[in-house]
Structure formats: structure tokens, C-alpha cells
Design brief:
Helix content: under 10%
Number of helices: 0
Radius of gyration: 15 Å
Distance between the termini: 12 Å
Shape: globular
Largest sheet: 5 strands, antiparallel
Length: 118
């Protein structure tokens, strides 16, 4: 999750997928959803799905914008893809309140500051 400057000059947060592998990944499906407690009430966001035909080796792609309103709940990204016709999948969860500037690192390949899960 990277903090950038939006089209209107205001801060904008965007979710990226990085392929740090030395081979392309194919048939990439990213499913995102948020869930948890906000102000003592259970909340769940809509589930979004994104598909990338191919993500070349050592590259990245912007998946979706994310609004600060959901940083107080868990944000889950389930990623599945193929390498040489073998399917892989992994779940990444940004825990509530973990998307914040105190957790910033320099994101590889993008070379911008943000929060990353490997």
C-alpha cells in the first residue's frame, strides 16, 4: 500500500502487487475485502476482484485505490497465480491500524514509501 499524490494534488493511497520473482506470473487473480470492528460495530467491505493476464518478472501493477476509512479494519488480499502451469496462492492481511506512516518502508521496484507484506 503506497501513499501517493492523487490527480487533485491530495494524498491518495493505492494497493500494488509486486512480482519480485525472476519469472513472469500468469493468470493473476487478486480478491480484496475488509472486515473488523469500527467504533465497536462489525464492518465488512464489498469484495473486489482484479485479474491480470501476466505480470512480468521484477515488475508491479496498481490493483486498486484504498481509502483511509478502512485502515481501522483488517484489509485482506488473496492472490493466486500460475508459474509454469502450477497454481500458487497466498493470503495477505494488513491488520487494523497497520497501514500508517510509522510502518513505512521503501517499496522495492516502485521506489516509493508505503507498507508492505511479503
Amino acid at each position: 500500500v503506497v501513499k501517493e499524490t492523487g490527480e487533485n494534488g491530495q494524498p491518495a493511497w493505492n494497493v500494488y502487487i509486486l512480482n519480485l520473482k525472476s519469472t513472469a506470473i500468469e493468470g493473476v487473480l487478486v480478491t480484496s475485502t475488509g472486515y473488523g470492528l469500527l467504533q465497536g460495530e462489525g464492518r465488512k467491505t464489498s469484495t473486489l476482484r482484479h485479474f491480470l493476464d501476466t505480470l512480468p518478472a521484477k515488475s508491479f501493477a496498481k490493483i486498486e485505490p484504498i481509502v483511509e476509512d478502512v485502515f481501522g479494519i483488517n484489509n485482506e488480499f488473496w492472490v493466486s497465480f500460475f508459474i509454469s502451469k502450477v497454481m500458487y496462492d497466498k493470503k495477505y492481511i494488513f491488520l487494523a491500524e497497520s497501514i500508517c506512516e510509522s510502518n513505512f518502508i521503501k517499496i522495492p521496484l516502485i521506489n516509493k514509501k508505503g507498507v508492505m507484506i511479503k
